[in-house]
Design brief:
Blueprint lengths: L5 H6 L20 H7 L5 H5 L2 H15 L4 E2 L6 H5 L5 E3 L3 E3 L7 H6 L5 H4 L1 H14 L5 E6 L1 H10 L7 H9 L1 H25 L3 E6 L7 H17 L6 E5 L6 H4 L6 E3 L6 H8 L3 E6 L8 H15 L4 E5 L9 H18 L2
Length: about 350
């Protein structure tokens, strides 16, 4: 039994006594205890691939920030690596794939990964975390959306345009779909295994949704996200597509429970489009650079726009690593205090 089930109830559309709150990327560089632990290791991947350490980092923000959920410490790029395309995490540069997908032969060489065999360290981290949490808060599992994973596998690194990946959609859409089908099959098995290991909710991150035009997004992303949502019926699923405001109405038709909004979307406009679904978000991460009073006012305004129910408070993207943890606490405390008054 969960001692704090606010997030689960909000995700299911049930009434809550206040708005639950957590932050994307809450387990990470904003916390000095994370930096201290990371400094003793060879790098990011050692942390991700060591279940006991990943569990420790997952729980740090629950202890330090008193958020209403933990999210397993991992990375969306463990999926392509499990499929046979390894990545490196280069300090100050981000992810790098020494090899990329360029041809049908490259796609043929990729496997549909077995979760226990190829991603067992993540599943073990979930099991260790669940034991350590002892029901304090729900645990969120996650994966990248197939389009975002394809973008990295084809491009080989982060990009402002992902022009190589986008070129594939125009030049060889059949090959793109073949790759997306393999990614989707791996992702479904992986997320189902996360649920079996103890994840209470699932979030699908489409980080590079906003670089696609709407027609391409529907063809090369939404259809595969739908398959993922259909395959995860036992726990609430959140879909977050950064920069793809045009996809919100389509997401309303998906079998997901929650739709994440980035900071450019107005929940007052979105509410009429999504029926009884829960919304998540969406304070601008840069608002946390303001004074405590400014953070408090921005948070209250966000809460007013979402209204008192069917809302999970969060940022409109991940918290930035140079954010003052004190301002993060102001955000969290304000959500807890002010959302209670909205229900009075």
């Amino acid at each position: 039994m969960l001692k704090n089930d606010l997030l689960l109830r909000a995700a299911r559309g049930e009434e809550t006594e206040r708005t639950p709150v957590w932050l994307m990327r809450q387990a990470g560089r904003i916390l000095p205890q994370y930096r201290e632990l990371r400094g003793r290791l060879s790098g990011f991947k050692e942390l991700v691939e060591t279940p006991e350490l990943a569990a420790e980092v997952t729980i740090q923000p629950v202890d330090a920030l008193d958020v209403d959920a933990a999210i397993i410490f991992s990375d969306i790029l463990v999926v392509p690596e499990a499929m046979g395309l390894p990545y490196e995490m280069v300090e100050a540069r981000g992810p790098l794939f020494p090899d990329t997908v360029k041809s049908a032969q490259d796609v043929d060489r990729l496997r549909v990964a077995d979760p226990e065999e190829h991603l067992g360290y993540v599943l073990e981290a979930i099991r260790v975390t669940k034991t350590a949490l002892n029901g304090r808060v729900p645990l969120i599992g996650f994966a990248g959306a197939p389009w975002t994973i394809l973008a990295y596998m084809v491009e080989g690194h982060g990009s402002k345009t992902f022009s190589k990946a986008r070129r594939l959609l125009y030049a060889n859409p059949e090959l793109a779909h073949e790759l997306l089908r393999k990614i989707t099959a791996t992702t479904i098995a992986y997320l189902q295994a996360q649920v079996a290991a103890g994840a209470n909710l699932i979030q699908v991150f489409d980080s590079w949704a906003g670089i696609l035009p709407p027609d391409h997004y529907r063809e090369f992303s939404t259809r595969y996200i739908r398959e993922i949502c259909q395959a995860i019926p036992d726990v609430p699923v959140t879909v977050f597509a950064k920069g793809a405001y045009f996809a919100t109405a389509d997401f309303a038709q998906l079998p997901c429970r929650t739709i994440g909004l980035d900071w450019n979307e107005d929940p007052r406009t979105v509410r009429p489009l999504v029926g009884d679904k829960t919304l998540q978000g969406n304070l601008d991460p840069c608002a946390l650079y303001g004074s405590p009073a400014q953070v408090r006012e921005a948070t209250m305004e966000m809460l007013r726009r979402f209204g008192p129910q069917r809302h999970i408070a969060n940022l409109g993207h991940g918290v930035y690593p140079d954010t003052n943890p004190d301002n993060v606490r102001v955000f969290i405390d304000t959500v807890k205090e002010f959302s209670t008054t909205l229900r009075a």
